[in-house]
Design goal:
The complex is a heterodimer of chains A (286) and B (285). Chain A has helices at residues 13-16, 19-35, 39-55, 59-83, 107-133, 136-143, 148-176, 187-211, 231-250, 268-280, and strands at residues 90-97, 101-106, 256-257, 263-264. Chain A has 286 residues and is mostly helical. Chain A has a domain at 15-136 and 230-280. In chain A, the strands form 2 sheets. In chain A, strands 1-2 form a two-stranded antiparallel ribbon. Chain A has a two-stranded antiparallel ribbon with strand order 3-4. In chain A, a hairpin with a 5-residue loop joins β3 (256-257) and β4 (263-264). Chain B is an alpha/beta fold. A 6-stranded mixed β-sheet of chain B has the order 6-7-8-3-9-10, with helices on both faces. The chains are: A mainly alpha (286), B alpha/beta (285). The interface between A and B is large, with 38 and 40 residues.
């Protein structure tokens, strides 16, 4: 079965756009997600990424990324709640823990973890949309004149997602085939084997790229599909998102503090920024 | 009097002299004083047990060793009159094609067409000539119906043919194959070997094929080179190889040759047709 994150050629503005336009658009959402800690702004960026993915036909990728993001977010919340001891509102006292000492779970630490988790989930959804909608072949060619090694990395990333998915399925099958009497294989050893295998494969794919002449200085012949009529739209929306993010930052739209007590700023500038960001999600609409 | 350089098309497809190589941090050399020569148009089978240096020799012939893997190397490797140790894999890309054993790690593009077209594009060929070359190689490998497919929808056999097409599309003088049938079913494996033989005869491309399942390839080969502990232990005809393997390295004997030698039947067969003829001559069919 194909990985939900694998690129699928479809008609649509995001798929037709040049890699630079798609990266400018999706990258601007990631930048704003890293700039802000306000829950409303992060939720708006997440909603924009989901809408963009759905409009671009990447429903499976968005759904898979949301599941992964939710799991990751819960993990981050749990770790942050246990590790961070700051905050005024103690929810639970868990006593003495080895290495950590006295562990008090505070509402502020849970909230801070939730924001970190939300940011991770948002970034994951944006990358899922990128992976499913932006043709890695075009990325490879677009990056070649700039920096061979960057393109190599991009290609490895684009090929390794489906390869790792296939490897994971094979490893799970192999573990099941050991029979009920065999010791169960845990997720951690499986993940370690998958990582080691992926690195080996990375070297093989990189070698193949070398053998195809990627490192040659010869100029690439012009491609027929160099530019698209949607490029301007994505460049403009990407620039608009960044400009709105910076303007919002300057006007205090990111008013949000976790410690010592949670303070959430919901001023007009925050709502205006969130609305603008949400609207940016409709850019892939044809 | 100055010595005239040999034109590339008349030069040996592969010439290796005194090649010794060790991978980084390796305790022993992977190749020890290897010398061999492949003439244009030959199909040579590279035999030997696991770890004997077959794959390393192929990597040296396409420039991956030492340029990609690092390590210490001495000796000389020339491919179609190009110094492989100097040039590296990128500059050798037009002269050498390489197909590894795992088909999945040999594709870097999303669609079959883009994958086959990639080496030509990297070389700077114009779109029209790229399209023509892709069509020709696709026809030769019987894969025109796959061109618009995405690579992750292909079977292992189809993927291996696509990898071979990408290796052949620049019309290299030498194609190196590292156990290309190891992950294919027997039928797909046999088809690939005879496809290689046909391309070797029709296009005149020199082929160096490393394989473990010798019974599958011996009949297609012009010559066999056997390796042991990083060195060349045999270099001769397929029939000569069977006789040598019987006395020097029985692990490399084919099942049919072993059966014939147990039954005391000579000569040992290099293929099914050979076996049938020998048995027929003895009235055993």
């Amino acid at each position: 079965m194909r990985s939900p994150f694998a690129y699928t050629p479809r008609p649509g503005p995001l798929q037709a756009a040049s890699p630079s336009a798609a990266v400018a658009y999706l990258g601007s959402l990631v930048v704003v997600a890293f700039l802000y800690s306000n829950v409303l702004v992060l939720a708006a960026v997440g909603a924009a990424a989901i809408v963009a993915g759905l409009l671009a036909g990447a429903r499976r990728a968005v759904r898979a990324a949301l599941w992964m993001g939710l799991t990751l977010a819960l993990l981050i919340v749990a770790i942050n709640a246990v590790v961070v001891d700051r905050g005024e509102t103690v929810l639970a006292r868990l006593g003495e823990w080895p290495l950590l000492g006295p562990v008090n779970v505070t509402a502020e630490a849970v909230a801070a973890g939730a924001v970190l988790g939300l940011r991770a989930a948002v970034v994951l959804v944006v990358f899922a949309v990128y992976s499913a909608c932006v043709d890695p072949d075009r990325v490879l060619r677009a990056l070649r004149p700039i920096a061979g090694r960057s393109a190599l990395t991009a290609t490895l990333v684009s090929r390794l997602v489906p390869l790792a998915a296939a490897d994971g399925a094979r490893l799970r099958d192999a573990a099941r085939l050991r029979g009920p009497a065999a010791a169960p294989v845990g997720r951690a050893p499986l993940a370690r084997r998958l990582l080691a295998g992926s690195l080996d494969r990375a070297v093989d794919v990189a070698a193949t790229l070398e053998l195809r002449g990627y490192a040659l200085d010869a100029p690439s012949a012009p491609r027929a599909r160099a530019r698209s009529r949607y490029d301007r739209r994505f460049h403009v929306v990407g620039a608009g998102v960044l400009a709105a993010g910076i303007a919002g930052k300057l006007s205090g739209a990111d008013a949000f503090d976790f410690y010592p007590a949670i303070e959430i700023g919901y001023g007009p500038s925050t709502f205006a920024l969130a609305f603008v960001l949400f609207l940016a999600g409709f850019a892939p609409h044809d | 009097m100055t010595e005239l350089a040999t034109p590339a098309h008349l030069a040996p497809a592969l010439s290796v002299e005194g090649l010794t190589y060790s991978y980084p941090h390796a305790e022993r050399a992977a190749l020890r004083d290897v010398s061999l020569q492949l003439d244009p148009g030959e199909l040579v089978l590279l035999a030997g047990r696991s770890g004997c240096g077959k794959s390393t020799l192929l990597r040296a012939a396409c420039g991956l060793v030492p340029h990609f893997h690092g390590g210490e190397i001495s000796g000389r490797v020339e491919v179609a009159a190009i110094d492989a140790l100097e040039a590296g894999p990128g500059k050798l890309a037009s002269a050498v094609g390489y197909v590894a054993q795992d088909p999945e790690t040999q594709v870097v593009s999303t669609t079959v067409k883009a994958e086959i077209e990639l080496p030509l594009e990297m070389r700077g060929d114009q779109p029209a000539s790229r399209a023509r070359a892709v069509e020709e190689v696709a026809l030769a490998l019987a894969i025109p119906h796959l061109l618009e497919r995405t690579v992750d929808t292909l079977s292992g056999g189809e993927l291996q043919r696509v990898a071979l097409a990408a290796a052949l599309v620049t019309r290299p003088q030498l194609v190196l194959l590292d156990e290309p049938t190891s992950q294919l079913d027997p039928v797909a494996g046999d088809e690939l070997i005879w496809l290689l033989r046909r391309l070797n005869e029709e296009w005149g491309v020199t082929i160096l094929l490393a394989e473990h399942r010798l019974e599958r390839c011996l009949a297609a080969a012009d010559r066999v080179i056997a390796m042991d502990s990083g060195g060349v232990s045999f270099d001769g005809s397929p029939r000569g190889f069977l006789a040598w393997a019987q006395s020097s390295d029985p692990a490399l004997e084919t099942p049919a040759a072993r059966l014939f030698s147990l039954a005391g039947i000579e000569p040992l067969p290099v293929g099914v047709r050979d076996a049938r003829q020998t048995l027929g001559e003895r009235g055993l069919r």
